[in-house]
């Protein structure tokens, strides 16, 4: 049952509509004019308003502004294309020509109600997602990620050039997407270019375009990716790899807002926001003379640093859960969960490949899993040297019964993590990274014969 308000000044039609809609199972209220409706009812409590266009006092379309979010269907006996278009322009969801066929009217009402419900559900879902993840698709609530979100929020609306710095796989491209999505250019194009992936000889013409005959093989004129990004954002990934000639053209573009296609002397105005990213140490490349200092300064108007995964300790379990769900959805598998041992293994892994490595490990595990639980062996985590992390050690630690059931790997990870990190981490930090209390850490040390080495 939906709540419907009928605004109609002809009593006969109003009664007819009421009867029809009540019979279809709806709760119907009535008014003879927009003003009467506004004074008698809380208009935003309705699921649908069905209003005549010509009413005493004010046209039916005036009700649209009074109940934002509520679909309004306009009825008119003067169903000219113009009045229908005008009503829709003012925000009506649709219009009905009078005299109306009962079945058609009911079908239209049901459709609008269904769509309205979907819109409301989507809006609620969007609000929920936005609260959980302030930047679409980016999971994290560690202080380092909160800083990233805060910077994105502040910088996105401005036209400022942004330089995103971070190791490979830390989400630099996601940052660029978020900057675009939260900017006034969101409806314009977002063009992503990986500067390292395009052969050096082609890069200049790919980015800035060329004129016919500019070089052998340039059979037709070609607009580059900069021009294709007009009105939007150009994301230059691996900007540190740009060859010198392309650096010079990019600098000119940033200074003058113009591009010159290769082989042309005519400048073309472009309105493009540049977001650049690199995992390289750009100041060092400047020092080495391979990256222009003036371009570096132009690019780094604002810097955003994406933290490596190993510095986002508390984000790991949430991120792993999110990426596991994503992998199951992508692969069409039933939802899976991580065993506690698998979670511990993820927690202690150093993640040189960052979130991308985590995403790949989970995807591989979902493919290999026979059941709904992901165990450490399925993750096959690689050590930085390239060796798969062994699941047994030469000198196995004393194994607790419950860990033995789970393959003994939990103790092994614990032992390895403590031995690897106790020299440079305090007990509080160690316990935090392991996701256990200090007391539990002390007890485990006793049990495994791993006494503390630091005061
Ligand atoms: N905070 C995050 N939440 C969810 N997924 C993430 C997050 N960060 C990165 N990812 C995912 O990890 C993968 C790698 O991210 P992305 O391509 O943005 O990294 P990158 O820093 O641009 O890498 P590269 O330098 O290698 O190009 C993507 O699939 C992305 O969706």
Characterization of this structure:
The protein has 455 residues and is an alpha/beta fold. The chain has 3 domains: 3-128, Response regulator (Rossmann fold, 3-Layer(aba) Sandwich), CATH 3.40.50; 143-307, Rossmann fold, CATH 3.40.50; 311-448, Orthogonal Bundle (Helicase, Ruva Protein, domain 3), CATH 1.10.8.60. The protein contains 20 helices and 14 strands. The strands form 4 sheets. The chain has a 5-stranded parallel sheet, sandwiched between helices. Helix 13 (316-331) packs across helix 15 (354-368) and helix 14 (340-348) runs parallel beside helix 18. The relative contact order is 0.07. Mean pLDDT is 85; it is low at 384-408. Residues 137-140, 166, 168-174, 237, 279, 306, 319, 355-356, 359 line the site of adenosine-5'-triphosphate.
Question: What layout of secondary structure does this protein have?
Answer:
Elements: E1 3-7, H1 11-23, E2 27-31, H2 34-40, E3 48-52, H3 62-66, E4 72-76, H4 81-89, E5 94-97, H5 102-132, H6 143-155, E6 162-165, H7 172-181, E7 190-194, H8 200-208, H9 225-228, E8 233-237, H10 244-256, E9 258-260, E10 267-269, E11 273-278, H11 282-287, H12 293-299, E12 302-305, H13 316-331, E13 337-338, H14 340-348, H15 354-368, E14 373-374, H16 376-379, H17 401-405, H18 409-421, H19 427-434, H20 438-448
Parallel strand pairs: 1-2, 1-3, 3-4, 4-5, 6-11, 6-12, 7-8, 8-11, 13-14
Antiparallel strand pairs: 9-10
Helix pairs in contact: 10-12, 13-15, 14-18
The chain binds adenosine-5'-triphosphate (ATP).
Adenosine-5'-triphosphate (ATP) binds near residues 137, 138, 169, 279 and 355.
């Amino acid at each position: 049952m939906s709540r419907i308000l009928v605004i109609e000044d002809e009593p006969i039609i109003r009664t007819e509509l009421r009867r029809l809609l009540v019979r279809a199972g709806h709760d119907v209220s009535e008014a003879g004019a927009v003003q009467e409706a506004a004074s008698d009812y809380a208009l935003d409590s309705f699921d649908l308003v069905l209003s005549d266009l010509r009413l005493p006092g004010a046209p039916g379309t005036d009700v649209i502004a009074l109940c934002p979010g509520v679909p309004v269907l306009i009825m008119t006996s003067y169903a000219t294309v113009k009045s229908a278009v005008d009503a829709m322009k003012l925000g009506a969801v649709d219009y009905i020509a009078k005299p109306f066929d009962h079945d058609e009217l009911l079908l239209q009402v049901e459709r609008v109600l269904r769509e309205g419900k979907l819109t409301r559900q989507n809006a609620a879902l969007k609000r929920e997602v936005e609260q959980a993840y302030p930047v679409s698709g980016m999971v994290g609530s560690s202080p380092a990620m909160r800083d990233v979100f805060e910077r994105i929020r502040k910088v996105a609306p401005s036209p400022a050039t942004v330089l995103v710095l971070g190791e490979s796989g830390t989400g630099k491209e996601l940052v660029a997407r978020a900057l675009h999505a939260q900017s006034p250019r969101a409806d314009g194009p977002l063009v992503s270019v990986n500067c390292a992936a395009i052969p050096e000889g082609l890069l200049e013409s790919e980015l800035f375009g060329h004129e016919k005959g500019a070089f052998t093989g340039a059979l037709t004129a070609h607009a580059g990716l900069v021009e294709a990004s007009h009105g939007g954002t150009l994301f230059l990934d691996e900007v540190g790899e740009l060859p010198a000639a392309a650096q010079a053209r990019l600098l000119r573009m940033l200074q003058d807002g113009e591009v010159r296609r290769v082989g042309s002397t005519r400048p073309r105005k472009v309105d493009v926001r540049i977001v650049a990213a690199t995992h390289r140490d750009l100041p060092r490349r400047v020092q080495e003379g391979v990256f222009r200092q003036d371009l570096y300064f132009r690019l780094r108007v604002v810097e955003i640093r994406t933290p490596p995964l190993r510095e986002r300790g508390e984000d790991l379990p949430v991120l792993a859960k999110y990426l596991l769900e994503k992998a199951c959805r992508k692969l069409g598998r039933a939802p899976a969960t991580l065993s506690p041992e698998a979670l511990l293994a993820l927690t202690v892994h150093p993640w040189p490949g960052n979130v991308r490595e985590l995403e790949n490990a989970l995807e591989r595990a979902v493919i290999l899993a026979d059941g709904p639980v992901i165990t450490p062996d399925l993750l096959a985590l690689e050590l930085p040297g390239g060796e798969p992390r062994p699941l047994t050690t030469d000198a196995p630690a004393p194994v607790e019964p419950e860990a033995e059931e789970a393959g003994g790997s939990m103790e092994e990870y614990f032992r390895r993590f403590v031995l690897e990190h106790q020299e440079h981490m305090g007990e509080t930090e160690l316990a935090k990274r392991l996701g256990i209390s200090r007391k539990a850490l002390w007890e485990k040390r006793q049990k495994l014969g791993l006494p503390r080495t630091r005061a």
